[in-house]
Amino acid sequence: MSEYLPGLEGVPATKSNISYLDGKKGILTYRGYRIVDLAEHSSFEETSLLLLDGDLPRQDQLQEFDRQLRNNRVVKYNIREIMKCLPATGHPMEMLQTSVASLGMFYAGDECLTGSDRCEDLHYIHNMSIKIIARMATLVAMWQHIRNGYEPFAPRKDLNYAGNLLYMFTGVEPDPFEARIIDACLILHAEHTINASTFAALVAGSTLASPYLVVAAAIGTLAGPLHGGANQRVVEMLREIGSPDKVQAWLDKKLANKEIIWGMGHREYKVKDPRAIILQKMMQQLMDHRGGKISREFETALALEAACEERLASKGVYANVDFYSGILYSELGIKEDQFTSIFAVARSAGWLAHWREQLKDNRIFRPTQVYTGYAPRDYTPIDRR
Ligand code: COA
Fold first, then answer.
1. Domains of the chain, with CATH numbers?
2. Nearest C-alpha to atom 45 of ligand 1 is from which residue?
3. How far apart are the C-alpha atoms of 281 and 313, rounded to whole Å?
4. pLDDT tens digit string along 308-366?
């Protein structure tokens, strides 16, 4: 193929049997299981194992995986010390990329992927995946306290993944309903075919870089506002709008200036993102759980989505996963600049599943380019320029 397609639109970059999406029908499945069923019945632990191994685990397999995740939550003292040296004004995604890369130095030894022999070593791959997934939540939640000058809460082994994440953020016993919401959010964000950050993970993985560096590359890619960083922008945008009655004028101005509406649009979906539908329902459930009072941001979001539908549906632009996730996290007391980090916590399962799949049949990524520069020309000495 010699045709250049900007953004590689429609170009298959890999073969995968991890997840599937139908952007016209709004269907997303992980290993063949519909996302709506997983969000309702599964847990993040079970979904991670499904993504990594390919099938829903038996009870004993899930228990063992869960036990290993719980046992690997603590991070070494020196990693906390590194985090304490980072500027409090830094973005959590920058902290996360730094800390995950540094995990590779502290937990390296013979676990460091140095040769193709490791590609075949399922035990190594599984072990690495557990070490990374287990610690992602710890790093993100610890940062919330470290950056404010406090000692972080130690992870608790008696809580499930989502409950522990919420506990480490708030320091109080997690409300089971809220922990379940976080659990479902983690499931919904765990995987999404070959998006930009997963592609970055595949490229890094194809060089046989260590899994810590593979995940660090993916974290950097997820951080951008056109990808995972959009959830933070959505809440900032809703606060800027202020209230539902201001939506129409605000939208007219933005669209007239050809500006982006955060949380809207997707390369693959030409209908509303199925994850956005579930997240919107969960937001409604949370409001009902709290006595029916609707939050100002949710109200504004509903009005904005309706207004966008009138103006953008003809382009196939609808709400994506980031449109409602941030509002939900915000209602659970999570700071807006941490939304994308929580997305990364969840997506680490998908990245590692793709890393594993890549290693099974690896060939280094080395695409070509359409050169648009000068033909060879003579060097001009500096005194003659
Ligand atoms: N706001 C306003 N217009 C949008 C839009 C948005 N969020 N997303 C797409 N469009 C418009 C484009 O301006 C373009 O219009 P045109 O044909 O008149 O030029 C058309 O829809 C097609 O969009 P395009 O830029 O080709 O889509 P893409 O596939 O390259 O980009 C995104 C996909 C996700 C990067 C893009 O939709 C976007 O920037 N969304 C906002 C960021 C976001 O929420 N990201 C999270 C994704 S999960």
1. 29-175+207-223+343-360 (1.10.580.10)
2. 226
3. 21
4. 999 999 999 999 999 999 999 999 999 999 999 999 999 999 999 999 999 999 999 99
